[in-house]
């Protein structure tokens, strides 16, 4: 090798090292998780559990838990009991072992009926919709289904536990595909598959209980990779990884099942690549400990919900991220006279009075308390980190001879037109002292449309109107411009036109690149999150030192490659 070639190689390595060090992002250290609240005790009453199993959250943030009493219970995110359904049996809405549970984007609830070898589908209030499955090994049949998950398109994935496979269905139960099988190879299950989750890209994660592995698949069932993450060869009591969840960023959360209740269990958080980011559960306090656990779920704010199933600890524990930039939640108690009034915090229904909420973000919030037959009360309150606050209201009876129109929508914030007049109010909102008779309503919201309703109000009554709409995705107009004009616009590497340019894009994240001769290419990510118009303006730069350096590095690499081929 000549001295000249050595110098070229050293220069190339130095330049590439410089570019890597200055351009690659650095992952920040993950934050710590601390106990926020818990609920549950041993029993069959409302809010009690007999060996709770699985947990899920719907798009509105409500929490659903299965247990050995063959029922599903629904709670607010702070643990306030809302409703329940289910009993022992083989009919619709009955169960013989409730295990896995999940919710789709419309709030429908899917439950695996373990020993009845089927899946049942319900509304968020527990009304039966449909069911599918029977004992067996054929397509659409099950041998004790366990975990269950739904993707963004509504496809349902079921862990067919004792058949050691995963089955994929439409939202109505039509069979689509299956994969897996017993074994220790890629995509096979050694022992029994347990939990299942789907990320925002449609990738499917399945816990292989007794090999302590997590398998990752494409939606078609094609095997992608394995996350090991556990090495418990000297812990014979470990029974598996029963619970798994994935957050919006693709991070993976799992539970451990030791079969003991001594508080030595943990939950783990992995990066999408399988790196351990956090271990939940410690001896800081009794509440921070995690005993034998099964189900796990994570909400859009990053709070983690874990089911503890051992005899003395049948409960749900909620953990939150604690960091220097994350304030400690405040506590808010709301009471009313009479009790049983609905509580809305920042226009979101959170429960009924009396209620205590332990996850309130410090700051100023609106609190509305309403009850059928009474005038509602609206107030604002400022709460401090870790400090308790109280809202106490006395509700006045409705004026004799008038009625109430109560308008609700999911999501909240829809505009209301009453009797042809724009009210300037948004949902949720109660109109008091309404004259009895026939009234017209129009409830409207961008990307959901307009819901018209004709109602009759009788004296002394409350008419509740709730929108039944579904999300309608609309395109967003994006205006692209550059300085100078005439730049080529690429969206996800597809040429779309020349600036100035208007495009219609759906919600999502896109890679936008603008190119023009004699100018440096400009590439950036664009997130389209609403139907509001977006302006994207770029000032293109002429090649500078950094660009020249990169070009020199590239030329040097090409030169070396050519020399090495001679």
Number of strands: 47
What average pLDDT do the residues reach? 82
Largest sheet composition: 4 strands, antiparallel
| Helix share, percent | under 10%
Q: What is the approximate shape? A: globular
- Taking all Cα atoms into account, the compactness measure Rg is 28 Å
Could you tell me the strand content as a percent range? over 45%
Per DSSP, the total helix count is 2
Please provide a written account of the structure.
- There is one protein chain.
- The protein is mostly beta strands.
- The strands form 13 sheets. Strands 1-26-25-24 form a four-stranded antiparallel beta sheet, with no helix packed on it. A four-stranded antiparallel beta sheet has the order 2-3-4-5, with no helix packed on it.
- Helix 1 packs across helix 2 (545-565).
- Residues 1-30, 232-239, 259-263 and 545-566 have low confidence and may be disordered.
């Amino acid at each position: 090798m000549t001295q000249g070639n050595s110098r070229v190689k050293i220069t190339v390595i130095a330049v590439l090292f410089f570019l890597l060090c200055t351009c690659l992002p650095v992952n920040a250290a993950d934050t710590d998780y601390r106990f926020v609240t818990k609920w549950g005790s041993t029993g069959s009453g409302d809010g009690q559990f007999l060996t709770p199993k699985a947990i899920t959250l719907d798009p509105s943030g409500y929490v659903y838990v299965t247990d050995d009493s063959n029922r599903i219970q629904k709670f607010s995110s702070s643990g306030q009991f809302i409703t329940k359904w289910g009993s022992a049996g083989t009919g619709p809405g009955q169960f013989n072992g409730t295990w896995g549970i999940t919710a789709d984007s419309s709030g429908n609830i899917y439950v695996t009926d373990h020993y009845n070898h089927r899946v049942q589908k319900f509304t968020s209030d527990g009304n039966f919709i449909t069911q599918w499955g029977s004992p067996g090994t054929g397509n659409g049949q099950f041998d004790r289904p366990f975990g269950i998950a739904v993707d963004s398109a509504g496809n349902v994935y079921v862990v067919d536990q004792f058949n050691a496979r995963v089955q994929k269905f439409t939202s109505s139960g039509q069979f689509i595909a299956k994969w897996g099988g017993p074994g220790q190879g890629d995509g096979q299950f050694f022992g029994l598959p347990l939990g299942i989750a789907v990320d925002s890209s449609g990738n499917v994660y399945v816990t292989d209980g007794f090999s302590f592995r997590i398998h990752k698949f494409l939606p078609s069932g094609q095997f992608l990779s394995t996350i090991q993450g556990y090495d418990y060869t000297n812990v014979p009591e470990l029974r598996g990884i029963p619970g798994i969840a994935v957050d919006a960023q693709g991070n993976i959360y799992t539970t451990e099942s030791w079969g003991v209740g001594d508080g030595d269990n943990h939950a783990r958080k992995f990066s999408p690549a399988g790196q351990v980011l956090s271990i939940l559960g410690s001896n800081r306090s009794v509440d921070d400990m995690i005993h034998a656990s099964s189900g796990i779920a994570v909400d859009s704010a990053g709070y983690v919900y874990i089911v503890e199933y051992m005899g003395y600890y049948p409960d749900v524990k909620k953990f939150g991220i604690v960091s220097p930039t994350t304030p400690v939640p405040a506590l808010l108690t709301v009471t009313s006279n009479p009790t049983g009034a609905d509580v809305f915090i920042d226009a979101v229904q959170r429960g009924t009075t009396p209620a205590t909420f332990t996850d309130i973000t410090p700051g100023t919030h609106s609190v509305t308390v309403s009850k059928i037959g009474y005038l509602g009360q609206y107030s604002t309150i400022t709460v401090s980190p870790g400090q308790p606050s109280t809202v106490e209201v006395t509700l006045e009876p409705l004026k004799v001879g008038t009625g109430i129109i109560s308008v609700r929508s999911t999501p909240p914030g829809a505009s209301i037109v009453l009797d042809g007049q724009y009210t300037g109010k948004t949902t949720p909102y109660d109109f008091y002292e309404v004259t009895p008779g026939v009234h017209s309503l129009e409830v409207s919201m961008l990307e959901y449309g307009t819901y018209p309703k004709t109602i009759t109000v009788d004296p002394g009554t409350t008419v509740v109107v709730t929108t039944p709409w579904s999300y309608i995705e609309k395109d967003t107009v994006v205006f692209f411009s550059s300085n100078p004009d005439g730049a080529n616009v690429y969206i996800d590497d597809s040429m779309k036109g020349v600036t100035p340019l208007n495009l219609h894009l759906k919600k999502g994240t896109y890679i936008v690149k603008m190119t023009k001769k004699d100018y440096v290419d400009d590439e950036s990510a664009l997130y389209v999150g609403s139907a509001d118009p977006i302006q994207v303006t770029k000032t293109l730069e002429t090649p500078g030192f950094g660009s020249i350096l990169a070009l020199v590095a590239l030329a040097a690499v090409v030169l070396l490659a050519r020399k090495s081929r001679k």
